[in-house]
Amino acid sequence: MTDDALFEVTSPTQAAVKSRQGGSLAASPHRGTPLAVRMRPQTLDELAGQDHLLGDGSPLRRLVEADQATALMLWGPPGTGKTTIAGIVSAQTNRRFVEVSAVSAGVKEVREVIDSARRQLASGGRETVLFVDEVHRFSKAQQDALLPGVENRWITLVAATTENPFFSVISPLLSRSLLLTLEPLTDDAVRQVVARALVDGRGLAGAMTLDVDAADQLVRLAGGDARRALTYLEAAADASNSLDTATITIGALEAAVDRAAVRYDRQGDQHYDVISAFIKSIRGSDVDAALHYFARMVEAGEDPRFIARRLVILASEDIGLAAPGALETAVAAAHAVQLIGMPEARLNLGQAVIALTLAPKSNAVITAVDAAIGDVRAGKIGSVPAHLRDAHYGGATKIGHGEGYLYAHDDPRGVAAQRYAPDAVLDATYYTPTRHGAEAQYAARLERIKAILSDARGADLDG
Q: What span, in angstroms and rounded, lies between the C-alpha atoms of 358 and 349?
């Protein structure tokens, strides 16, 4: 199939008639082409999800409907419509479509495409859309080779990446491109994609139905990826067709994709029960149980960003200063989810799960923070001691601000013996470190600090 043919607009009505004339799924005239390719949207209005990019007057609509030659940088996880948008830009603006993969193309191939596009323009031919998939895999030299074509508008560049372009794309190319961020499809958007494929003439043309349980499982397995949803739907339809049944059941889906159904509702009890068990297993240091619940969430298509957020919270709530590096590990895993996406980011999340589960535990941070907040809410505020008040403006010293303040770095111990807390909470103790892990060091240091400060407090009271 040529690039132009791939995005050729076909009437769903005509295709449906042709498909039904055969009388069965096996007789469909599209059988040589994957369902995910056949169902690729032909217009922006057919694009599922990404509503933030499709509103009236949006940059993407202006590009397509006003036929503007603007370079696009599409950033998002797999199956969210990056290749589709490139095809729509080409088809709806009547431009020639050329696709290169950053995995296999080099500088020579890029320059050849740009030279060809320039010759086409010089001879009065069509403009060219150059789609570069996985542009983050291009070296700096390869990305530099794109600049003349973009700068002189010999090509309309559409580049796709699953990684953060601010880290993986050279600044000159990024600054010349309109950056569009694509989000994982919602469950409703995936359902819309599947429902259209079931009835559309380019798809299954009404030859198959999908029962409710199978539809729910299919949406879970898709994990916000439209291509994956359609690939699984096609496999399940083939399995059902071989059994001479027109209904795709959850059994057919499980057999086709070799995945057992995970009973998990991202909006229901299973969601809350599993994440609760996951957190409590990490808190309880049972690494195998934690990995089990983690695997259940991954297989059920839980949003990996949700898992990452919970790990970041847990790193401070349940580990804290017992292992200060736990927070760095959790934050790094969260960044990896954004940079890499699933399924590869499961490794980064899994590493964080193991590290946090095996780390020494302490809830001293959350206990201290909540206790301090509790006192403030109870009205225990008090005035800031005069020697701690801002003394950088004119006239501050005349009213005693900053007078008598001791600079901690001037003390050989690194701790200045003076009052810090207001009267209302002068004797309050919020942070009580455990003796677990690295927090034992903080406990010993805190005892020494409190001894120094208590001497100053006693002297202040005596005075």
A: 14
Q: How far apart (Å, rounded) are the C-alpha atoms in residues 365 and 430?
A: 9
Assess contact for 121 and 147: CB atoms under 8 A.
Answer: no
Read off the DSSP letter of residue 163.
Answer: S
Q: State pLDDT tens for residues 65-98.
A: 766 667 889 998 887 888 888 888 777 777 888 8
Q: What is the per-residue pLDDT for 258?
A: 66
Which of 112, 114, 72 lies closest to 90 in space, CA to CA?
72
Q: Tell me how far apart the alpha carbons of residues 182 and 82 are, in angstroms, rounded to a whole number.
A: 8
DSSP-derived 3-state class of residue 97:
strand
Question: 326: how many CB neighbours lie within 10 A of its CB?
Answer: 27
Beta strands 209-210 and 96-101: pairing type? unpaired
**Regions in the chain scoring below 70 on pLDDT:** 1-31, 66-69, 258-270, 394-398, 456-463
- Give me the pLDDT at residue 406, please: 85
Amino acid identity at 334: A
308 within 8 A of 278, measured Cβ to Cβ: no
CA 16 to chain centre: 37
Q: Which residue ranges form the domains of the chain, and what is each CATH number? A: 50-181 (3.40.50.300), 187-257 (1.10.8.60), 278-358 (1.20.272.10), 378-462 (1.10.3710.10)
Residue-wise pLDDT for 347-375, tens only, equals: 999 999 999 999 999 999 999 999 999 98
Q: Cβ-count burial of 331 within 10 angstroms (0-12 exposed, 13-18 middle, 19+ buried)?
A: middle
- The pLDDT value given to residue 25: 45
Strand order of the sheet with strand 96-101? 96-101, 128-133, 155-161, 71-75, 177-181
301, two tokens: 């298509």
pLDDT at 6: 30
String of DSSP letters for 199-232 = HSTTTTTTS-EE-HHHHHHHHHHHTT-HHHHHHH
Peptide bond preceding 172: is omega within 30 degrees of 0, i.e. cis? no
CB 38 within 8 A of CB 5: no
How far apart are alpha carbons 178 and 60 in whole angstroms?
A: 9
Q: How high does pLDDT run on average in the chain? A: 82
pLDDT the model gives residue 2: 35
253 vs 211: CA distance, rounded Å: 10
Q: What is the pLDDT of residue 337?
A: 92
Residue 10: the pLDDT is: 31
Name the maximum alpha-carbon separation found in the chain: 101
CA angle at residue 409 from 408 to 415, to 5 degrees?
40
Stated length of the chain? 463
